[in-house]
Write a structure and sequence with these properties.
The complex is a heterodimer. By secondary structure, chain A is α+β, with helices and mostly antiparallel strands. In chain A, 26% of the residues lie in helices and 35% in strands. Chain A has a 5-stranded antiparallel beta sheet. A two-stranded antiparallel ribbon of chain A has the order 1-2. The chains are: A alpha+beta, B mainly beta. Chains A and B meet through helix 1, strand 1, strand 2, strand 3 and strand 7 of A and strand 1 and strand 2 of B. Strand 8 of chain A pairs parallel with strand 2 of chain B, so a sheet runs across the interface.
Chain lengths: 174, 30
């Protein structure tokens, strides 16, 4: 578990007024809530993230980079791609992070990918997915070639991104 | 408190160039 992701989670707890004294996982590595506080971490080469929430939550980060056409088709079916408009890397990583965030929120691995579907795309920052008949709002934010996705039942998201453009906080109501 | 009215505060931090070995086991798309 990355110390940078844990530092991000600690900062998220401070901003949220939530406490996490331990970060337990089950035998499959799925984060377990502590006293009703759910948490999610993500770590890539250049960035790390964390979030705490009173409801199930999933966070995923990716760095946008070239992907094969075969991979484009793997992440979503044709009906989902029609929602995106353009079948390109940006849309791929948006779909990928959204689905990964939802699968983290429900405590499932990528084996659940085929059951996780894009339902609506509202704008660059908001979409809704479904997983086994449950709707999951997902918020996205893009910064310096990276994208972050947050899946939760809550509608108000205030991102804090440090180290880019001298640090900034962007609040997005979804 | 209605949890649907609670703001979420996700935080993203840069990882210094000298410390790229750590991982949370996140899956790769590659």
């Amino acid at each position: 578990m990355s110390r940078h992701a844990r530092a991000a989670l600690k900062l998220s707890c401070e901003k949220s007024g939530l406490a996490l004294n331990t970060l337990p996982k089950d035998d499959k590595g799925v984060p377990l809530p502590v006293d009703g506080v759910y948490w999610s971490l993500s770590h890539k080469t250049a960035i790390a993230g964390g979030v705490a929430s009173p409801q199930p939550v999933g966070l995923d980060l990716e760095t946008v980079r070239p992907v094969s056409r075969a991979l484009l088709s793997k992440v979503a079916d044709e009906a989902e791609w029609r929602l995106a408009g353009d079948k390109n890397e940006r849309a791929f990583f948006r779909f990928w992070t959204a689905k990964e965030a939802v699968l983290k929120a429900v405590g499932k691995g990528m084996a659940g990918l085929s059951r996780c579907k894009i339902l609506n795309i509202f704008d660059e920052a908001r979409m809704t997915l479904t997983y086994e008949n449950t709707r999951w709002p997902v918020a996205h934010i893009w910064f310096n070639g990276h994208v972050a996705a947050l899946a939760s039942g809550q509608s108000d998201v205030a991102w804090t991104i440090r180290g880019y453009r001298h640090g900034r906080t962007e609040k997005i109501t979804t | 408190m209605d949890p649907t009215e609670t703001t979420l505060y996700p935080v993203i931090l840069p990882v210094p160039d000298c410390d790229q070995s750590a991982t949370d086991g996140n899956r790769s798309v590659a």
